[in-house]
Structures are given as structure tokens and as C-alpha cells.
Design goal:
3% strand; mainly alpha; 3-stranded antiparallel β-sheet; 15 helices; 3 strands
Length: 428
């Protein structure tokens, strides 16, 4: 039945809409001539002819209007009769058929109203259609939450969908059907995104390896373990060996040589044979070993400075692929080892008879090499990506959407199940 009628801009009605509501199954409208009664019947008869007017039917179920007014009389009785009408003697069969069809129509109307209520609710705002709309809104909210979660690091993959929650949700559903990318950890996606979606795409130079071979070789120099003392077949050898003061005697000899044969310690005049014994004791072999110690100390110091300089240059590059904090820690450790070894070599040079060992750089150098190799592996991957940036963008974008799909896997599955059920009910 009709629930309300809205009329404006027609016949005696002005532009301000007039609403006739609160209608029941039977309604009686009365008024003076030219007040708009016939206009109401005309709107009911053919609402489409009156754009500013509206007839609202219960539950949206529009019935076929049958209007008997002057227009009907003029159209049907003053000209050729249209439709099926019984004039004069009525035919019983026709009336019975009409009555039966009216019952059938009434039953269909009741059924339509029931289904309309199920479809859109009693007020037109609920039912299965509202459930489907709410389901879409809920999924849109969940998709948008994931977008905001990853937007700061992965926004390049969301390009074209970042400013519309509806388009982002639609893209998610498309990817759900079409995405076949590999599932990649988030940390890897974010790391690659810095290169692939970065503002500039330039190749990076590899970090040079540190040349430490010579420095490490010094650690095994045999002179370090050798007790450098004089000849053992000289008459003063026994005394020097018993006292264990070869280094002390060697130091005093430099004063003896410039003191006209007078002992610098006891201030006694010595014999020519004693002078000859000193010369024989500190022979050419002793001198050669002493020279070897001096050369080792000089070369070690020079090679250590070269290694330190290489490391300083690497640190100064501030490469984004290098763990600078760890590298600085290893460099500080190496610097302290070098300082200790320079001190030990100075002691060996001063007292050749001492056996000394250098602190090993093996572990420190190995740690430095590992850091550099790791950085260079990342640089190589970065440069590979830069060289194939278009393909990498497409691959990374697909992998990002695949990752977000995995995060929403449970929600998307529930959405699909509920949506299929609602659409089936709506279609029915």
C-alpha cells in the first residue's frame, strides 16, 4: 500500500514540497474544487510524469495503481474502450477468474514484502544488503590498518592505492586471486625497499679488502724466539752465561769502546786479550741477529701503520652497508694489540737475549674481513637491483602484497565465506 505522497511544482502546488503521510489501507481526501485532489490521483496513476513528486510504497513494493478520475472517464468512455472491462451483463467465469487471480496476487505481494524485509529490513536500512555492506566496511578497515602499519617503509609498493581505503581493499581482493609471489620476511622486504623504492638508484663501490698479509707474517718471525747472545767458545762466555747478563755486557761495551780500554763499570784498565774476547763474543752472527731484530721492529711498525690507515679510510666512507660500530670496535682492539707489540719489539731490540711473542692479530683481522665481506655481499645485491630496477620494482611490489595477504589470511578467508553466503541469500 501507499505510505506517503510528496508533491511540489505541479498544478496548484508550489515549489515547497507538500507531504501526505500517515496513510492507512483506506484514505479519504476531500476539498474544494481546484485545491489539488485530482493532481494527487494523477501522481499516483503515473508518478514518472512528475519529476518533483514521489509516491512511497510499503517495503518498497510498488503495486499497480488503478485510478478512476475524470482523466479515466475521458480516456475510456469518451473514446475507444481500453483494457478489459465488464459493461452491462457480467460474465460469471470472468469474475471468478479475476477473484482467483486477485488472491494469487495478494499472496505474491505478501511473499514479496517478506523477502524485501529479509533483503533490506523493515526500514530499508537493514537485512542481508546491510550485512553485506557492513562486511565490506569491516574488511576495508582491516586492510587499511595493515596499509598504515607498513606505509612508512613499504609505501612504494602501495603506490596508486595509498590515498583510498576503498581502492586499497579492492587491490587486496585482486591480489588474493592473482598473487603468486614468494612469501619473503618483512626485514628483507624493508631492506630491499630502501634501494628499490629509494629516490636515487646508483651503484655503490665495493669496500676494498685490507692488506694484512705482511703484518700477520711478522708474528711468526723466528728471531722473536731466538736468544741472541755472543759466541759460546770465548773465554768470557762462561762468566757471561753464568751471570745471565749478556744484554748488560753488550750495553756496557758501547762505553768501553770509547773509554780507552777502561771498564765502564769497575773503572779498571783491561788487557788487550779482554778486548779481543769482547769482540769475539759479540761476533758477526750476533750483529746480524741484532740487525734482524731492528729491521723486524721497523717493518712491523710500518706495516701496522699501513693497516691502520686502510681501516681508517674504510671507516671514513661511512658506508650504509657496513656495520660501522662493530668495525670501529675491532679497529680499537687491533690498535691496542699493535701498541703492545711495538713495546715488545722495543724490549727485544734492547735485550736481544729475551724471548718475546707478539699478540696475535688473527682473530681481529678475521672479524674485520667478515664485516667487509658481508658489506660487499650487500653492495653486490644492491648493484644487481639497480641494474634491473624495473623488474625488481615489480617483483618487490608483488612480494609486499603477498606478505600483507599472509597477515590478513584469516580475515580474508572469513570474509570470503561470509560474502559468498550473503550473496547467495541475496540472489535467492
Amino acid at each position: 500500500m501507499i505510505e506517503s505522497i510528496t508533491i511540489a511544482d505541479v498544478a496548484s502546488y508550489g515549489s515547497k514540497s507538500q507531504v501526505l503521510d500517515g496513510l492507512s489501507l483506506f484514505n479519504y481526501i476531500f476539498g474544494a474544487n481546484a485545491t489539488g485532489k485530482t493532481t494527487i490521483s494523477r501522481v499516483i496513476d503515473n508518478e514518472c510524469n512528475y519529476q518533483s513528486c514521489k509516491v512511497s510504497w510499503k517495503n518498497g513494493t510498488r503495486l499497480q495503481p488503478m485510478v478512476y478520475n475524470q482523466d479515466f472517464v475521458d480516456l475510456n468512455f469518451k473514446s475507444e474502450l481500453k483494457g478489459i472491462f465488464t459493461l452491462g451483463e457480467q460474465r460469471i467465469e470472468t469474475l471468478e477468474r479475476i477473484a482467483a487471480l486477485k488472491v494469487e496476487v495478494d499472496e505474491l505481494i505478501i511473499k514479496m514484502e517478506k523477502h524485501t524485509g529479509t533483503l533490506q529490513g523493515d526500514d530499508g536500512q537493514g537485512g542481508k544488503l546491510a550485512e553485506l555492506a557492513n562486511l565490506q566496511i569491516d574488511l576495508k578497515s582491516k586492510c587499511w590498518t595493515q596499509k598504515q602499519k607498513h606505509d612508512s617503509r613499504l609505501q612504494g609498493a602501495f603506490e596508486g592505492f595509498r590515498n583510498s581505503a576503498d581502492r586499497f581493499k579492492a587491490k587486496m581482493l585482486t591480489e588474493l586471486d592473482e598473487n603468486t609471489a614468494t612469501l619473503v620476511p618483512l626485514s628483507e622486504l624493508e631492506h630491499r625497499a630502501e634501494t628499490v623504492f629509494g629516490r636515487t638508484h646508483v651503484s655503490e663501490l665495493a669496500i676494498p679488502a685490507v692488506d694484512t698479509k705482511t703484518l700477520l707474517n711478522h708474528q711468526a718471525d723466528p728471531i722473536l724466539k731466538k736468544k741472541v747472545i755472543g759466541k759460546d767458545d770465548v773465554d768470557i762466555t762462561a762468566m757471561i752465561s753464568r751471570l745471565g747478563n749478556s744484554d748488560w755486557v753488550r750495553k756496557g761495551r758501547s762505553f768501553y769502546d770509547i773509554n780507552d780500554g777502561v771498564c765502564p763499570f769497575c773503572r779498571q784498565k783491561t788487557t788487550d786479550s779482554f778486548s779481543k774476547s769482547l769482540e769475539d763474543y759479540f761476533d758477526e752472527s750476533f750483529a746480524a741477529d741484532s740487525e734482524a731484530i731492528s729491521i723486524l721492529a721497523e717493518k712491523y711498525a710500518a706495516d701496522a701503520v699501513w693497516v691502520q690507515k686502510q681501516l681508517t679510510n674504510i671507516v671514513d666512507t661511512s658506508s650504509g652497508f657496513l656495520d660501522l660500530d662493530k668495525l670501529k670496535t675491532e679497529k680499537e682492539l687491533l690498535d691496542s694489540q699493535i701498541t703492545i707489540n711495538n713495546q715488545r719489539l722495543a724490549l727485544k731490540k734492547k735485550e736481544p737475549s729475551q724471548v718475546v711473542g707478539l699478540k696475535s692479530h688473527d682473530n681481529t683481522i678475521a672479524a674485520v674481513k667478515l664485516l667487509i665481506d658481508s658489506a660487499n655481499a650487500q653492495i653486490a645485491e644492491h648493484n644487481r637491483i639497480v641494474a634491473n630496477i624495473a623488474a625488481e620494482k615489480a617483483r618487490l611490489t608483488a612480494e609486499v602484497w603477498r606478505f600483507v595477504l599472509e597477515e590478513l589470511k584469516t580475515d580474508l578467508a572469513a570474509y570470503r565465506t561470509a560474502k559468498d553466503g550473503l550473496e547467495k541469500a541475496i540472489k535467492a
